[in-house]
Fold these 3 entries.
Entry 1:
Amino acid sequence: MKLLKLGIAASLMLAAAPAFADESVTIKTILEKGAKLSVMGMEFDLAYKPDGTYADPSGMGGKYRVDGKKLCLTPDALGQELCSEYPDDKKSGDSFEIQSDFGPILITIK
């Protein structure tokens, strides 16, 4: 019986392995801590909620979803989803640049 339980647990872990490999540490950290974005001379201080929404203190907000190593934002004001690939293994305090439809975006993880 003990061997059967161990086999089932190992099978479940192997089945979940591809999902873990696709998750970005950077995106997980951003969703937990928030991030400051600088784009086209404007700054945004985004906080992400577990319900799939995000907001800036200025009132700007929208929805988000994660697609592997991409974070996709749909700003309420735009109504169009914008997805960008994020580098992996970034942590709180790190800054990095991504490319977007609006040009480069500087992101600083809180």
Entry 2:
Amino acid sequence: MPTPNQIIKNPSDFARVFLRILDKEKKLVPFRWNKAQAHFHANRTGRDIILKARQLGFSTYVQGEMFRRTVTGTQTTITLAHDAETTQKLRRMADRFYEHCKFGDIQPLRKYANATLATYPEFDSTSTIATAGNVETGRGDTYTEMHGSEVAFWKDAERIVAGAMQGGNPVVTLESTPNGAQGFFYEKAMESLSGGGVWKLHFYPWWWDEAYRSAGEPITPTEEEADLMQKHGLDESQIRWRRGKIAELGRLFPQEYPEDVVSCFLTSGNSYFGDLSQVFTAPLGAEWIEGHQYTAGLDFGQMKDFTAMPVWDKTTKQQVDLLHINGMEWSEIRNRIKQMYDKWHLRSVLAERNSIGQPNIEELHKMGVMATPFDTNNESKSAIMSNMNEAIHAGGWKMLPLPVQKHEMNTFVATQLPSGVWRLAADGDGHDDTVIGNALAIWEASRGAQIFI
């Protein structure tokens, strides 16, 4: 039998022996980690993003671990939830942990316990639970650990997280279901997925919960269902449950119960291009093939914006390359464009003439680059975007699976202005350089640019 000290030091044993939770039937039971909770505990890094299905228990796990460390050592923790209702639930969870946490007949000493703050004077620990509704929330203290709940639904999440982290080097766990292909949570998830940044992405689709099953008559899986069963080892009871949830939730199913990292963000948001999960399938490492026809688009940007030059193989309808650069002198940018032009034996490139475009087009002509100018306005932009939307969804055109393109395509939205005019652009302050470049390249290849020259 383990001693009390051994139990205290072992996180899963501490949860099982000292903590109580309400299960899905609202029964008070010992907190035994489920498969997803144990997996995350074994793989967390201290800078963690959890993209998850509903009710897998990650808020409970993180709160349990924060409570354990708070009542057994000196900690200053902060928990921020996306709304007042969730904040209250997390506070009730923390109170339940405390009420049932007894070492024999001894309960940890708690001095203050109000709607936001609890203090544990034996170890000089404090625990704050609040709503992430104010960018100033969390500022002014030095935290050892932070838990962000449903971060994809926060307003100004970047500033809130930065404010809570500025006073020290806390352990940070940010968890959420998806909420559209935009915002801080999405950007950090995609950054991690591409191998960059300091955050580690942990993805837990709905089948991590063994309870998501339904009994019934034998079924004949669709092609999509059969693919899921083969890839993830699912059985008919899980597929029956899935069918029932899709019937219940409709288009919200991929948001509430995600199945892959990219499409869950796509289908939960308002991307102009919709579901692109089957579009980013062009192979990497393509080489020039004699006899094939190649086309390119060119969107200029120097400092904050990027110069984007996607190249497409018109013969196979596949993107083969992308030049995506900024922070350079214009002469160097033009040299890079010339190198790409020569590499793919291009005969011309369709280039946006607006703003700085025209003088660069003139200089490129001197270098032997046949850049055809294109004027971008509401009418022409609508035309090339509609054309690209049709090409990738109905025409079989495939894009390279590059993170920057995925991000920009996913966050390109249509917004109706008060004047009634529709604005097609990146959501918020995002970039759409690769979107413009690809639209120009496909326009030149599939229809020709003469209408808007």
Entry 3:
Amino acid sequence: MRVLSVLEMLGTCTCTMNRSIKFALQRTSRVARGLLFSSSLVVSSLPAAEDWPEFRGPSGQGDAGMRRLPTTWSASNNVAWKQSVPGHGWSSPVLKDGRLYLTSAIKGDGKTNLSLQTLCFDASTGKPLWNAEVFSLEGDGGYKHEKNSHASPTPLVEDGRIYVHFGHHGTACLDVRGKIIWRNSSLSYPAVHGSGGSPIIVGNALIFSCEGWDNPFVVALNKLDGKVIWKTVRETSAKRKFSFSTPLLIQVAGQSQVISPGSGVASALDPKTGREIWRVRYGDGYSIVPRPVYGNGLVFIDTGWEVPSVLAIRPDGEGDVTDTHIAWTLKKGAPQTPSMLLVGDEIYMVSDAGIASCVDAKSGAVHWQERVGGNYSSSPIHAHGLIYFQNEEGKCVVVKAGKAFEIVATNDLGERTLASYAASADSLFIRTESHLYKITL
């Protein structure tokens, strides 16, 4: 990749006591203050158990940990509430401090204009709290794929601010009352099939990819004012250059890397400057959607349409590592839209056509591959030893995590569903074509 522009991110004791006792007390006080400061850093860096603040949750990889989530439901069973959602959108719900946030594209009074809005709901009751127009589009918003929407990227919530992204239409920041803090609509590009990938935050940088018909790039905006920090061209030989993946931040030997797959190539970028650290090429693979997964010393990506494969990459290289750092490749059952899921030493995935797989993360050996029915776009999640696969027809297949295939439950809401879940301590939040559900124990 070529970096176009770079802006670097940025009591005296008065007691009367002997000298040795005074020194001991001061040293103890310094240690205590240090421990308190370190502890506060750790606590402040961890999301609350109730929060699901970005696409695929706190880790960005779909892992709900040991949360005990419901395993059985229907349109009328174990439904805490069901709320109508105006307009159309496939952004996934996010949860922060008892509030749910979505985006939606709502037809205006003229029946052709579109209002791109952010919506806020009370997570306990489902009550709509506010909606705010972020952008207004003339006409119908342009062409999109039949499975896409004009509000597909998922919001991101951090420190009392909501970051919403509408692809080539623009990006914005709001406060938790719905007031616009900033907008940026300067990054236009020739989109294909609409928008899809969501942003991530690294320090003060809001990072996402802009990959349309030609001249694809990855960009970082200052999360405080929306101004461009850096913009990096994605250099690729792929014939079709449009893709929709969400980046993932990882740490390798103390170095931060933003893993960003695109058409024909996946790259690791320095989040401060946009400089490419390493790259892996995969020919003409395009329309990359799944978010990367990282663990066990490997980055797992998908190579997109035409000849989909899963690649496991060692992320400790520099430059072009195509011939040296691919640990294994899997072709059968590779997803093109749903992201993968890493639980312990196993990778779980489901293809768009409904083939679910459990694969050894270190070797690529397949433990099982089974048809679970339906077509799939949403990304699976893991919770308390269970894997949740949600298909486009509104059915969820819950299976046990493990090397033997075992279905625990099959659930049906009876509504089309392409968005991914949000999860609290004991509930699932599911967006369908027309509604938002809270499913509880």
